[in-house]
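Hi team,

Filling in the usual template for the complex we talked about on Friday. All components are listed, including any nucleic acid strands or ligand strings, so the model treats them as one assembly.

SUBMITTER: L.P.
PURPOSE: interface mapping
COMPONENTS: three
RESIDUES: 1242
SEQUENCES:
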Amino acid sequence: MLTKQEWTADRRAGFAALLGRQRPGWSLEQPFYLDPTIYALERELWFPRQWIVMAHVSELPRRGDRIVRDLFGEEIIIVNAGTDGFHAFYNVCTHRGSRICRDETRTPNLVCPYHAWGFRLTGELLSGRDLPEGADKAELGLHRIGVREAGGLIFCGLDEESLPDLAPALDTLLPALRHHGFHNARIAERRSYPTSANWKLVLENFFECYHCRPSHPEYFRMNGHVAATAVSDEVAAAEWEGGVSAWREQAVAPALDRVVRHAGDIDEVKYSLYRQPIGLGRDTQSHDGKPIAPLMGDFTHYDGGETAMHLGRLSFAGCYNDHAVIFQFMPRGVEETNVVATWLVDADADPGTLDIGSLTFMWDVTTKQDKRIIEDNAAGVRSRAYRPGPYTALESQSASFVASYLEIMGRLVG
Amino acid sequence: MLTKQEWTADRRAGFAALLGRQRPGWSLEQPFYLDPTIYALERELWFPRQWIVMAHVSELPRRGDRIVRDLFGEEIIIVNAGTDGFHAFYNVCTHRGSRICRDETRTPNLVCPYHAWGFRLTGELLSGRDLPEGADKAELGLHRIGVREAGGLIFCGLDEESLPDLAPALDTLLPALRHHGFHNARIAERRSYPTSANWKLVLENFFECYHCRPSHPEYFRMNGHVAATAVSDEVAAAEWEGGVSAWREQAVAPALDRVVRHAGDIDEVKYSLYRQPIGLGRDTQSHDGKPIAPLMGDFTHYDGGETAMHLGRLSFAGCYNDHAVIFQFMPRGVEETNVVATWLVDADADPGTLDIGSLTFMWDVTTKQDKRIIEDNAAGVRSRAYRPGPYTALESQSASFVASYLEIMGRLVG
Amino acid sequence: MLTKQEWTADRRAGFAALLGRQRPGWSLEQPFYLDPTIYALERELWFPRQWIVMAHVSELPRRGDRIVRDLFGEEIIIVNAGTDGFHAFYNVCTHRGSRICRDETRTPNLVCPYHAWGFRLTGELLSGRDLPEGADKAELGLHRIGVREAGGLIFCGLDEESLPDLAPALDTLLPALRHHGFHNARIAERRSYPTSANWKLVLENFFECYHCRPSHPEYFRMNGHVAATAVSDEVAAAEWEGGVSAWREQAVAPALDRVVRHAGDIDEVKYSLYRQPIGLGRDTQSHDGKPIAPLMGDFTHYDGGETAMHLGRLSFAGCYNDHAVIFQFMPRGVEETNVVATWLVDADADPGTLDIGSLTFMWDVTTKQDKRIIEDNAAGVRSRAYRPGPYTALESQSASFVASYLEIMGRLVG
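RESULT (copied from the run log):
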């Protein structure tokens, strides 16, 4: 069992040396993707500082509603405490440590099934009748998780004390989420893509489209931006950028008319906002590019745009005029990452007529392809022959992610 | 691979510090339930000193009968060597180490199937014809396991040298086993409940009934003692104790009329004997409380009593007028424990009319519930939020078990 | 993660002490069969120096043919590069480390499916258009594996630099392979026998026939040599040797008329060549002992002989007049070894009439039995009671193998 103590002295020095010798602009050495002690370190130091979108408000609309989720390998309970807001706790009783609930239901209090200890929705221990002397009821409340609702999304993070302030990110993101109507949405579909690879390999793949031509024929065919992002072709890229500028001049709302990329320092939330046309005559990201659901939020007509947002370092959204997709990248183990995609539509969208197949087509086919190529990547990285390789210009966001990771990890263990 | 050497110096000091900082009356810190190195230490030092009931004599009644069992992760053979008594060995050939047998059968000798080396039922190597020079036949007998038959039960323990003397425990237990007719019993049913949790969590649960009300509705409804053991209610407890005293005055046989609780020091066997009425008008622990099999042993009528025995630290018996249940708690890994329940009835009980469903009802439903709540307990203990919690007054036996474990482990590594 | 550095100082000294205290003529202590750190050391130092037969030329006859195999836990690609000969590579792209191919097909170049980087069949990177500054195309060729074709067999080894010279072994083996017609053969059948045991246990079993009488009734009954190799019987052994001498005088071709056993030093290939009659009136190793396929190579009639060859330390061949069997022992993990048997017949053998059941009978039934007894051996070796035992005279080759292993490992870590 890795303990903090074992990370002193020699190991810390060894890890610092490993961090220090990584070649800028090249992929990481093997241990970053395979070594359980590095994963344990990330689990101890890195993940608990990250906000990630964990739920949509429509999943627990009433006071007493609760849901159970996995957050970085920890089972958590998120509850709607009514006027007391949303609260989140580790699913661990403070008596003998039992899991408190498995089911998602509505309940006036949280009661552990083992010995029936009860807790308020805000976490305090209700009854202390059997408490032995020396046990302080006030210290036996549930273990809290950081939680924050914004624009219909519920963000969580493990360590309340070390979580960065969400406010600067929300200054940019919240108007965009509102414009896209996230607060008045419902979940149309959610799918999980468990991927047997380290979370960093999964993100490196997500951050570049250099692989789109060989690996994603459907995505390549149906998205205008790949002319600039999937192939090194300066003429095509300039043409695309010109088109984006022209489109932007007529269409984009103020809340969305920004290009923000905030990589974020160790004490900051990463966020970004970018808007561009889907292109190729497509109104939205449905299978045929035609409208598929009621317009969301403040949109009054189809402008064919896509708003891409980084919501922290591990959740993302792709937003269209009539739907949105949230991506969560959930590390589950040193070589296991769950990718979850959630499709949102307007709350008034008629479930009877919504074509889920068309709605999910693009990101379902693409994420399945990503799972396969990432797992092949992981297979090669496991080899004793694996060596870091160079990121090309089209993989610059992957290179930036790796550089940022190295810089922050260096400071966390430094 | 953990070796004894690796337990010197630093680790030993670290473990001693861990032992020393456990808060009396509170559950253990996480490593005791999860850390494979602590489990390896227990496997090296703690388990081999424990006697546990491994079989009933009816399982190997004739000379040459053998059975194969798992004892603390070690496969062992128990044989009936006739006038030479019962013997037990590791299932390991002394030639190249092969498993000697998989099947339970009758055989005049033990012959390894690999190269046909033969051994007497008492363990000595039979033929040494092919032995190379320098190999001493007398040193190539089978590796022995401690074994002792008492009152129809076969106790085993791994380390003959460090096993404590069973005699003091048997002074108390043997008359009770005889009164209950264990020596003239047969096995009516055996069921395994593999439980994914550390063995200490399983025992902590077994040692308290504070959880009976929320977790065991059937047990709670059908057993009189829960009024005193499941709820902090001084009036109900006094009433129960009064009833027990009154019952005891008329009914209990001398062999059973004792209240013995011997927790046992490092060099002693833990044992206990306690007898009380089932209560609530029930004659025996069948589904409906009515007689279910012939009276056993020295009983001449139903007195509605239950004799509870601790047979060492890992096996237990619940004995009624017409049947008995043996519980074995078999650690299989740091987070895997097999709970085995064996129902005994009189050897003359008619298999054609015995209602197995009724016989097993109470402990089957209760042990299945225990498996679920213990596994939920283990799930919570795995969390980074888990902290030791306080045992209440109704969990005093669990607290005593933990205190005794800490004390003995401290001396074993000290 | 075990790194070379962690093998300095203490561990190295500990391992040297472990090597040094092994008792000559007795089986190894438990850690050699179970300890993942020793297996990691073997994987780092021992396996990469070994040549092993990986394929037959008939598996990739044309330029561009490629096959994908596992070699010591590493996925490799073997390609036929036409006039450039055979080449072999780790299945790892030099860009980001992706697996390059899963399928066995024909292809003009090797193209990674992730980002479409292409490589020549001889390994060089084809296009470097997107390469960033500082990345040298010449250094981004595929990672090579040692490969050598001889007599129809394709030998591979991981470390080109440390692989010993195959030439001395081939001086003896190649004429025999040619006489047996390996170069003009095809694969009639291939079967895998995944065996849950350390590779050394598997080889120790393969190297002795002391177990043949109790464990292999069919083999025992159908092979003349077991009179001398399965039982300590000097009269029977002398009689068998006399028969072999008489047989040898009339029948054996010059290429086969040699008894060579070269155990091999650290920098040498192990090889051996031995020829004897099957005996008992059998022409070949078919089920009934009668001819089963066209005569192979230079044979003009059935002489009832068997040529046994050691082709390095991990592959072997048993060759008859009309077929041959290649055995590969592929370590897959500390307690997992894949045994692969491949039956070769003459390229002109008619698939329509070849009786695969009869062809494979002897080695299929025997290898299945070996899997079972080796796994039982592994089960016993896992016990805390396991101790090294003495090899008998009939297990001398197993003892030699172990002695050679200890000597070479001592020098590799020394």
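MY TAKE: The CA atoms of residues 173 and 273 of chain B lie 7 Å apart. The two ends of chain B are 22 Å apart (CA to CA).

Thanks, L.
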